[in-house]
Amino acid sequence: MHILGQRLLGIFIFLLLLLVVIVKRLATGSILDKPEGPPFIRAVNVFNLFFLLVVNPAAAVLLLMGRLPAVDPAHLEIESAAVLALLESLGLLLYAGGFLLMASGLGALRQAYQLGGLQPRPEDGLVVSGPFRLVRHPMYASVLGISLGLALLVQSGTALLVSVSYAGLIRFLVPIEEAGLASAYGEAYTEYRRKTGAVIPFVR
């Protein structure tokens, strides 16, 4: 953590978490949602919530204490200063960008927000504004950015494994969610899907 330093990075993480909590409360009226649905959907959402609400704050606390590299059993020692600076710069962009994308997605969804993989409710319209203009699943993209960004920022093999695992879960979750969206919104969703990437802009 040469770019910000461990303590400053810990504060930065807490501020980003606070931003998302405030935006979620203002946009959706709630802070924490209970995972529902079939077992697989619930498991993915529990994984999400655990990563966001436990792993990230714990990393921030350990950074503030200057203890994260010592505690992480899979901490990667990078000898090259240039490589380390590159990893940390990219990690910072992905991490902050992930939180900002999440806040933007919450702002666009507002009362239509619910945890991933669930069927649209009758009162929910199809949201295609904000980051949904570019990707159909910005909330998944945001967590991928956050998890990969954290791994690069703190050079953690454990965090990298979490990111890869989450990418694998999304690979199964997206078709389930899109089947429900197509059923609920019909041709409107088919046309929307034709024009947008799933989690990466312009990659269909």
Mean pLDDT: 90
The third-level CATH topology is: Four Helix Bundle (Hemerythrin (Met), subunit A)
H-E string: HHHHHHH
Major beta-sheet overview: none
Rg, alpha carbons = 18 Å
Q: What is the overall shape?
A: elongated
| Fraction of residues in β-strands | under 5%
Q: Count the helices. How many?
A: 7
- Helical content stands at 55-70%
**How many domains, in number, for the residues?**
1
Number of strands: 0
Report how far the terminal alpha carbons are from each other: 35 Å
Q: Would you tell me the structural class of the helices and strands? A: mainly alpha
In terms of per-residue confidence, which ranges show pLDDT below 50 for 5 or more consecutive residues?
A: none
The name of the CATH architecture is Up-down Bundle
What do these coordinates show?
This protein has a single domain, classed as Four Helix Bundle (Hemerythrin (Met), subunit A). The chain contains seven helices and no strands. The protein is mainly alpha-helical. The relative contact order is 0.15. α1 packs parallel to α4 and α6 packs antiparallel against α7. The N and C termini lie far apart (35 Å).
